[in-house]
Amino acid sequence: MIMIRNLFAAAIFAALAAGLLTAAIQHFRVTPLILHAETFEGEGGGHSHGEAAADHVDAAGTADHSHDAVALTAEDEAEEWAPADGFERTAYTTLATVLAAAGFALVIGAVSMFSGIPITFANGFLWGIAGFVAFSLAPAYGLAPELPGMPAADVLPRQIWWVGTALATGAAWLLLAKTRAGWAFAVAAALVVIPHIIGAPGAPDEPSAVPAHLATEFAAITLGTSLVFWLVLGTLFGKLNDVFARNRVAVPAGATA
Amino acid sequence: MNATTNVSTATQSLSISQRMIAGSLALLLGLTLLVGTGFAGDFRLHNGAHDTRHAMGFPCH
Question: Domain of life of the organism in this record (chain B) (predicted)?
Fold first, then answer.
């Protein structure tokens, strides 16, 4: 019981810190690009903001439906709930980022438990790099970080490819962490490469109203932010595990660490 | 380095079943959080987590 509590406590506290730091970076560097991109949304035949709104626009499809961003935003608000721009939107984004951080932390905590490889201060950054490559870099290699309004394939096939790629890449890391046998390198390489041979669902080749410089900036900044997130999460998770484990060992033994 | 040794000892001293229970609970909760923030189709979850999905590279829209 104590160790379950320790695992969860370490995961949650590390996620809280890493998530809040990431949310701050997102607030200053990422969200402004999203908001900027949304002003172009709907201009170049890009996807509209919500699926319900998209259905409505398609169904109504009449000439009096102007596709400028203002009309689309108003429609969104009328038809489906979305946080209001400003404080409310920032608060929801911060909450969602912290919850996603907790999700990632618990998943790598579970991997640590199942595999018997501890997450420590000494190896935490390696866990962070592994998490970054599995959950950010490898999926982004096929599905580049995408701004609202950019053309993209249907959501479900992309989600399936994303999950499959993250699982395969994560499995490759785990395999190499457990054994450095020759066959393991071959299997790991196959696990990493196969999703990209299968290929991510490609975006339709249609023009986007989102300026290219926004898109490239967004891709670089989100990947960089993800790297910071994962390094902080892994290192902090490991540090907290060390602290909790030391206390756990010290208390029953009556030792003074 | 000392801390590392302690943790390794602590982890190895756990029984397999303890690790499996802790891992299963963590995996269950972790996946629930990731599905809720990154993948769920419900428009409330989608719109609330919209900017996070784009920022973290989850497929969106």
Answer: Bacteria
